[in-house]
Amino acid sequence: MPRVTDIDPVARSRARAAADAALAKKGTDVVVLEVGEILGIVELFVLVSASNVRQVRTIVEEVEARVHECDGGKPRSVEGLGDASWVLLDYGDVIVHVFLDETRAYYDLDRLWSDVPRVEVVPAIQPAT
Questions:
Q1: In terms of Cα–Cα distance, which of 100, 108, 106 is closest to 55?
Q2: Pairing between strand 94-100 and 86-90?
Q3: DSSP assigned state of 98
Q4: pTM of the entire structure?
Q5: CB count, 10 Å around CB of 53?
Q6: CATH number of the domain where residue 47 is located
Q7: Comparing 125 with 98, which gets the higher pLDDT?
Q8: Which of the four, 28, 42, 68, 111, has the lowest number of CB atoms within 10 Å?
Q9: Residue (of 24, 30, 26) closest to 45 by Cα position
Q10: Nearest to 94 by CA among 36, 38, 26, 53
């Protein structure tokens, strides 16, 4: 299986920007999965949970802003904003999934993709105030 060092640097940067955005908006259980070996058309999944619909939408907006700031990228498509229980942002090489907590538990993508490598997501250190 490819390791994170084998993944396209643009995809790595996008996934990192998405993960940082989710963490900045208090997203929880942020996970980056290396799915490229199995899917072939996508390199990374970013999974993140939120406690309510407003937070899902806030995370989605922040992900779009940070990825655009990172490399000018815009999602090819955005699915699920209507009810915002599971929003999927498709950047081609990176797919970002933003879930309500209960929706993530129900679909359990973490278990479904448990055999793929995970990239550790470490929150950026915030300066002391």
A1: 100
A2: antiparallel
A3: E
A4: 0.90
A5: 13
A6: 3.30.460.10
A7: 98
A8: 111
A9: 30
A10: 36
What radius of gyration do the chain's Cα atoms show? 14
Q: Does the residue 117 lie in any domain? A: no
Q: Is residue 13 part of a domain?
A: yes
Distance CA 14, CA 65 (A): 11
Place of tokens 């655009």: 68
d(CA 43, CA 94) in angstroms, rounded, equals 6
Domain count across the chain:
1
> What are 16-39's pLDDT values in tens digits?
999 999 999 999 999 999 999 999
Residue 35 included in any domain: yes
- Cβ-proximal residues to 50 (8 Å cutoff; 6+ apart), any chain: 26, 27, 28, 56, 58, 59, 98, 99, 100, 101
DSSP-based three-state secondary structure for 92: coil
Residue 121 lies inside a defined structural domain of this protein: no
Q: Is the dihedral of CA 37, 19, 123, 109 positive or negative?
A: negative
Per the structure, the complete domain to which residue 44 belongs is given by: 4-106
